[in-house]
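Now for today's protein.

===
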Amino acid sequence: MEQLSFLVGEWVGTSKIYENGIVTKKGSAYEKISYDLNRSILVIELNTEFLQLHTIILYDEADEKYYYYRFSKEGSARYPAEFKEEKLIVWKDEKTRFVFGSSPEGGFKEYGEQLINGDWVKIFEDTFKNTQ
């Protein structure tokens, strides 16, 4: 779980939704990320103009992989994840992934991509800076 410490903080930023490579929606975003249960889980509270999520990330020692538990008013889901090249990559399915990575300015960004005709196409991007 220590690999994910770059995500911990209170963050403000911008959320963008893409369709066919063009930004179709843009709005403000807020995210609070903290460890809980003796640093065994990471809790993410996301609020944007388009989406509110409560997410829990944990590392399963037996499986040797991360799991991303997403909760919204529409329901819940569990996705496998991996930490690769300094990024957390969450796999919704074989053709949809969410990537969390730090930015050079000390913030982080999260983006979603879909595999279309062999290319990864961005479907959303949230860019954050720390409020502290």
About this structure: The mean pLDDT is 94. The first strand starts at residue 9 and ends at 19.
